[in-house]
Amino acid sequence: MIEDIILTEQEKLYWEKIFNTEFIFEKGCYSTCNSHCCKWDTPDLPLTIIPKGGTLFYLPKEYAYISKYGKITEIPPYKMKTKLFDKELFIYYKHCNDDSNCNIKFSRSLYCKLYPFIPVFDIEGNLLDLKFISVYDVTYNIIGQKSPCYVKDLKAKYIDLWSKEDSNIHLLKNPYTLFYLMVGNLIHDNYVETLKSNNKLINLQGKEFWKKWEKLYLAGRLINKNKLEKGIEKLYNDFSIKYNFSLED
Ligand code: SF4
Ligand code: SF4
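That is the input. Now the predicted structure with iron/sulfur cluster docked in place:
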């Protein structure tokens, strides 16, 4: 339950900083692509079951902050949870097709502030790489489909910016956020490997590809769950040792 998460004063200040920080910001970029990443409304992405629009993800403490101090949407987000080893890991998610007016109506999530990249850190918080954060962009990249998003081509710029001492990326090295970002990276790599190994799917093209992709994706068959759980369990143990980290805190 959201109400069960009580933020400490330090956590409140931390999420306030995240809330007031832009990580990837290219002024007016939405005018070049008709807000592609908020709508995903293009004939090149012919999905029939998944609705058009983006999906917002909120980390549990991020949503606890936003629901108390920020602006929330009229309809609350859903909870996506998975039981791992002896822990429950969950995030909130919500469908969005708000056409980039979101800041006026509700608080944007960290996920949206990072789009189109997820920073890849090691456990020490060293920035190793940037990967695409959206499953659609990751998939576009693998099947060689073009995207109208020019910000995706600015990886070198953001690696350079975020490698500087005074970069605001240090905010993401907080163990709590770092853990979830590293879980995100495990999911990314697991998805890429599973998708690439599905020869029947990967050899399809255009509409036929997306039709089959959508069914497999919704059935959870584009993730190797066993491998992912083992990876997250190892990561969790490493974080517990290094940062005295616990999902129960
Ligand atoms: S980040 Fe990319 S897809 Fe999203 S609005 Fe900007 S240019 Fe368009
Ligand atoms: S919250 Fe805003 S930036 Fe994120 S998908 Fe919705 S409209 Fe786009």
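The first helix runs from residue 9 to 19.
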